[in-house]
Design goal:
This protein is an alpha+beta fold. It has five helices and eight strands. The chain has a five-stranded mixed beta sheet with strand order 3-4-1-7-8, with no helix packed on it. The chain has a three-stranded antiparallel beta sheet with strand order 2-5-6, with no helix packed on it.
């Protein structure tokens, strides 16, 4: 196998390894307690959710990020029998939804369709595709501007830039989106770990495939681009749904 083939194989191995260690559920007490998150797309401002099957009838803790609302109940509010009935109030109307399936994961996510008054396990359709696409496009835009500032002008260089970043950043964002938690603090740690793999892969691949400038210039670009991408990624996670 020639040098180029070995470099490509190593990049693929790094990306595969990053995906293979997808964040898994952990019940460590140092993190926030187990929770049930009711995810709502574009929730009304006055919407409230109360767990009426619990005799204390706790109201959900609300957090809004961009177009999504997260209505959170923690383990202290959960019942042992695994049947949860919620009273949803908005715009002067009230309805109830029941979640009969027992909670299995450390961080459970269900989606409330306010219009159809339905509560469904998991996240709403195409959410992962939408969020991965947004983060990937923003990252490509940022790193593409830096690539241009480093005076890479050849079509071959730009093709390699796109190909390598689609593989590395695509794998990173799929990895981030597979963690289960909707809390940005968890994703920041995953982002830092994932960027180590991305950094290593791009530092290997770009100098091998790009011939337009000296390797030292390409390595400097890869370092600066990934550093800025890490900082920007942390900011994106804090202001967009995760």
């Amino acid at each position: 196998m020639n040098k180029t083939g070995k470099g490509l194989l190593l990049v693929m191995v790094l990306c595969t390894l990053m995906i293979s260690i997808l964040p898994t559920t952990a019940s460590a007490n140092s993190a926030e307690p187990p929770s049930l998150v009711i995810l709502i797309n574009n929730p009304p401002d006055d919407l409230s959710i109360v767990l009426v099957s619990n005799e204390n009838q706790p109201e959900a803790i609300v957090r809004r990020v961009a177009w999504e609302g997260y209505y959170v109940f923690y383990s202290r509010d959960m019942q042992a029998d695994g049947k949860y009935t919620f009273k949803i109030s908005t715009k002067g109307e009230t309805f109830e939804c029941t979640l009969a399936a027992p909670l299995q994961r450390y961080n459970n996510v269900v989606t409330l369709d306010v219009y159809n008054q339905e509560l469904k396990p998991g996240k709403y359709p195409f959410r992962s595709v939408l969020l991965v696409s947004i983060r990937l496009l923003l990252t490509l835009l940022i790193e593409g501007i830096i690539f241009w500032f480093f005076r890479f002008t050849q079509k071959r260089s730009w093709f390699i830039f796109l190909a390598v970043n689609l593989v590395t950043q695509g794998a990173l964002n799929i990895w981030l989106n597979s963690g289960g938690s909707l809390m940005p603090s968890y994703l920041i740690f995953s982002l830092i770990i994932g960027e180590v793999f991305v950094f290593a892969a791009e530092m290997i691949a770009l100098p091998i495939f790009i011939k337009e400038h000296k390797k030292s210039r390409i390595l400097i670009y890869a370092f600066i681009a990934n550093l800025i991408s890490l900082i920007a990624g942390g900011y994106i996670i804090s202001v967009l749904p995760v």
